[in-house]
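Exercise 3.2. Students should predict the tertiary structure of the chain below and write it as structure tokens, then compare their answer with the key that follows.

Predict this chain's 3D structure.
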Amino acid sequence: MTYAQVVTQIRRMSRAEKLALMKVLADTLTENSAPKRRRTLKNMYGALHPKTGRLPSNKQIKKDYANFLVEKYK
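Answer key:
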């Protein structure tokens, strides 16, 4: 069956048949997609943990950002 024949048949389908076809096509696309996000998030756990072991305070973050901007726009 050629592409043109498939398109012609799809245009002749009812709305319900077209929706069913779309669901099947969407399912086949998701089956072949990249690995699930859960696995990626598991691998990323702790990646942003600071090396010093403590998270900086809000004051320290603001101070560091201000220093960064001062250096950037000298």
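Discussion points: The chain has a mean pLDDT of 85. Residues 1-33 form one domain.
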